[in-house]
Amino acid sequence: MIAKMTKVTFLVYHKEYDCFLKNIRDLGVVHVATKAQGGAENAALQESIRLSARYAEAIKLLQGMETASAEVREGDAAKGEQALKQTDELLQQSQQLTHRVQAAEKELAALEPWGDFDPQNISRLHKAGYQTSFYICSEKQFKLEWVDLYHATVINRIGSKMYFVTVTKGMVLPELEVETAKLPDSSLSALQAKVADLKAQQTALQEKLKDLAATVISDLKAAQHQVHSQIEFSKVVLSTDALADNKLMLLEGWIPSERLPEMTEYLRTQEVYYETAAPTPEDDVPILLENKGFFRLFEPIMRLYMLPKYNELDLTPFFAPFFMLFFGLCLGDSGYGLFMLLAVTLYRLFAKKLSASMKPILTLVQILGASTMVCGLLTGTCFGFNLYDIQVPFFQTLKETISLDNQQMFNLSLILGGVQIIFGMILKAVNQTIQFGVKYAIATIGWILILVSTAVAFAAPGLMAMGGTVHLILLAIGGLMAYLYNSPDKNIFVNIGLGLWDSYNMATGLLGDILSYVRLFALGLSGGILASVFNSLAVGMSPDNVIAGPIVMVLIFVIGHAINIFMNVLGAMVHPMRLTFVEFFKNAGYEGGGKEYNPFKN
């Protein structure tokens, strides 16, 4: 269900406004009606956003270091600021070293074909009046007369390339139509030592970063949280309207109605004028879901789609039982369900620390695993084996009581689809009544009457004969409701036309929606077949050896079923969500689009 909200308007004297904002932030119950305008032009806000991004990058970098972190402790924001400066300095030094290493390696690559020689020897030749030049060419380009004319000497051959030097007397250099090589002023051994030294400096910097990562991550997070608070504070300030020559500050927000007494008690002690009001249909009210127990576990699935609007029904409690059942039918293997249940239960027992957000997710997985165990008993599938082939009284009793064959499972899928779709239409009628009034729900009620009466006549002719008097009366009443009250504000002819259009959509869309539920049967069947295939492979491919045979059999069994569990669990999540978000939500008239309640708090 959706928590009731109350609109609150504050009027505060400008000199007391900062203190007032800090106080309501400490209370942490007011969702401020923020405004988009002005945010992009606010330099301080943009600087805070950039600073937050720097903290995020530093935290991500240090968390990626393979280092043993110190024990978890409460962070210090002031130390976090210093840690960010240290991290930035180390990163800047690392970047500079990287550029220097790249430049030195480039020089090293250029000098390696020429070997290790002292550049001072070239300088002495130059002082003695001899010009030494370095050239690179292909073997075809090299001419033998260069040996006599310019004392060309081949230094190295790499592939089809030749590296040679010329030594000529005087200041005139030979004009050769080949590539000239420009070599660095260092020897090969000196460059190699330089590269090794730079890389050693890089390694030392990485060690400093690792040492930093082991101690300052919690401080960086604390400083980042402080910046986030500043950002939220700035957004609230930008959402404030200044009145009376900027002397009065007007702020609007929303508060859960059950928390209103707490806020009122605080405001009575302050020099603040405030007003409360109920939401109007035009208001963009934030959404706070308040489902309890079992239904609360399915709220993350609702958030994957979108939150309802404030004046809509929260469909979470209504799709939760169906989703649990659909998951079990799609996975359809009692062994897989038992594995999920035991694995999560053992994890919860032995995990050292579980976050508050993780616990409900694990509980949801346990419930889905239990549902799979029960649904798997409908076909008797357990890790690809059929439990009902075991001649044990307990399994034989279950077989006689709840076992279904493939045709019955197919029919069950269609029946469940029809039930959920009609249930969705009932919720649509309720939603229309709440939002617009009873007369806007009459057409939907008419279609429900037509579909339910036809389904009863088909399934239980003893109660109502198909085409009998009672059935025809109910069809006539439903038809009149659907055709004459399709759109209550329009005239009768428009209503009849819209009713005919709805009839076409109902005849085509409803059939497609119900057939979509066949996937419940198909996925469970395909998963069971694939599991049995892996069992056959495990038996058939194991060698006839006392030692190797069982090992190979277990490996194939474990790997095969691990792959099957992964694929089937993924399908068992995706397809029930598809049935919920498309078929069920569509027939329930769900619109969605609400924004989540996000109180201004530390």
Automatic annotation (TrEMBL):
<dbReference type="GO" id="GO:0007035">
    <property type="term" value="P:vacuolar acidification"/>
</dbReference>
<dbReference type="GO" id="GO:0016471">
    <property type="term" value="C:vacuolar proton-transporting V-type ATPase complex"/>
</dbReference>
<protein>
    <submittedName>
        <fullName>V-type ATP synthase subunit I</fullName>
    </submittedName>
</protein>
<keyword id="KW-0406">Ion transport</keyword>
<feature type="transmembrane region" description="Helical">
    <location>
        <begin position="547"/>
        <end position="570"/>
    </location>
</feature>
<keyword id="KW-0472">Membrane</keyword>
<keyword id="KW-0175">Coiled coil</keyword>
<keyword id="KW-1133">Transmembrane helix</keyword>
<dbReference type="GO" id="GO:0046961">
    <property type="term" value="F:proton-transporting ATPase activity, rotational mechanism"/>
</dbReference>
<feature type="transmembrane region" description="Helical">
    <location>
        <begin position="440"/>
        <end position="460"/>
    </location>
</feature>
<dbReference type="GO" id="GO:0033179">
    <property type="term" value="C:proton-transporting V-type ATPase, V0 domain"/>
</dbReference>
<feature type="transmembrane region" description="Helical">
    <location>
        <begin position="318"/>
        <end position="349"/>
    </location>
</feature>
<dbReference type="Pfam" id="PF01496">
    <property type="entry name" value="V_ATPase_I"/>
</dbReference>
<dbReference type="GO" id="GO:0051117">
    <property type="term" value="F:ATPase binding"/>
</dbReference>
<feature type="coiled-coil region">
    <location>
        <begin position="188"/>
        <end position="215"/>
    </location>
</feature>
<feature type="transmembrane region" description="Helical">
    <location>
        <begin position="361"/>
        <end position="388"/>
    </location>
</feature>
<comment type="similarity">
    <text>Belongs to the V-ATPase 116 kDa subunit family.</text>
</comment>
<feature type="transmembrane region" description="Helical">
    <location>
        <begin position="408"/>
        <end position="428"/>
    </location>
</feature>
<keyword id="KW-0813">Transport</keyword>
<dbReference type="InterPro" id="IPR002490">
    <property type="entry name" value="V-ATPase_116kDa_su"/>
</dbReference>
<feature type="transmembrane region" description="Helical">
    <location>
        <begin position="520"/>
        <end position="541"/>
    </location>
</feature>
<feature type="transmembrane region" description="Helical">
    <location>
        <begin position="466"/>
        <end position="485"/>
    </location>
</feature>
<keyword id="KW-0812">Transmembrane</keyword>
